[in-house]
Amino acid sequence: MTIKEIPLIINGEKVRSKTDTWLDVLNPATQEVVARVPVATREEVAAAITSAEQAFKSWSKVSLTNRMRIMFNFQHLVREHSQELAELITLEHGKTLPDAEGEVGRSLEAIENACSITRLQLGEIANNSATGIDTYTLNKPLGVGVGITAFNFPLMLPAFMFPPAIACGNTFILKPSEQAPSSTIRFVELALEAGIPPGVLNVIHGGPDVVNQLIESDAVKAVSFIGSTAVGTHVYNLACKHGKRAQAMMGAKNHMVIMPDANKDRAINDLLGSAFGAAGQRCMANPVTILVGEAREWLPEIVARAKLMKVGPGTQRDADLGPVVSPQAKARILSLLDSGVAQGAELLVDGRNCKVEGYPNGNFVGPTLFSKVTTDMDIYTQEIFGPALCVLEADTLDEAIDIINANPNGNGTSLFTSSGWAARKFENEVDVGQVGINVPIPVPVAFFSFTGSRGSKLGDLGPNGKQVVSFWTYTKSVTARWFEPDHQDGSTIHTTISMK
Fold it and tell me: Is 283 one of the annotated active-site residues of the chain?
């Protein structure tokens, strides 16, 4: 069987890399090699940068309306090819097809937000801000942008980046994860088919050396990252050192608080879906629940329902969760689960020896649930990024809020309750960027910004919403005064700064 080779995209063309280093892309359910992805050479990275830099000269002058129309075309093509994109996600990531289809839908939301660029990129004006003087602002594109994305959302994360960056008049270089590149490449191909000109959108593959070269280039003006905390911290610090605008959305340890007045069935089902969906490989998953007061009595039912969840390949539509992305990821997850047992947590659901009939080589880890978890255990302090749920207990909502606020991460949290008072208290007192009230995974719709905080985010501005335009543009202020053609005043020298 011929193994597909993932291309680079430079200056609007698919390019076969001249590299000597190719990485295997595996189907996580079978370990079958489904593609090979190149580690781009320094010359290829430089060519992508040059292409983007040259294209900026003309693309930045294209009207808002015409840039918006291309985004509309892109949205239409993605919708037409939704099933193809979802199947590519499942093939290389492993998430279930319904989950992959949901990711395509979330990607469309982000593109649709970019379709609003004629509204979002407006400046401000003060007519007659001083006598005969107008002051106004222009939101201008920055230049070449770079996006670095993780494997777990190979469509949605790029959609958070290049559509708004390009719609704002920038050019772009995308460096996607090498673990699930096929859907990303197809996504970019559709963007080019929609009318994005050569050089405006480029794709480069590779590891740390490629990332560093991109960031250190003088031509690159802004860097957006979504992925792990360790890599994100490096990317952000290096970008800042080289004078780039930077944002990094990073790791998490999200908590879902369940009050005893919550709708029991809804709370339990949403907890399990958010903890184990996508095999826990979401930065907005809920790997920790805090059962408050009498809600702790629901633990046996939570355990019973977790044991009923079905593990299978992503192509099996009735599976609740698929495999994790790689053997290395599985080994790391199992090591952390073992540490939970060794450190004294009570293992109530054990998914460590999960077997799926017909898929002996798959990277499967079943739903795993610990109780009697303390906040100094590795399974609590580290982001497992697998299908593992830690159960803590609290006597009061105040105690639950204190636990969450003591955790260094601030990506997401949620509260399940029927009390408006409790919900209002929680949303105002919890120190987390994204809060759900009876919503298990509180990623806002794309016309609101992604707002993770504290240890989960570096940089002031997030993807999506109005903030995305602030990130991908700079503000130029113009103060203008125009005189009548025969105006004679001006013979006096003024040495003061005032304008009246």
Answer: yes
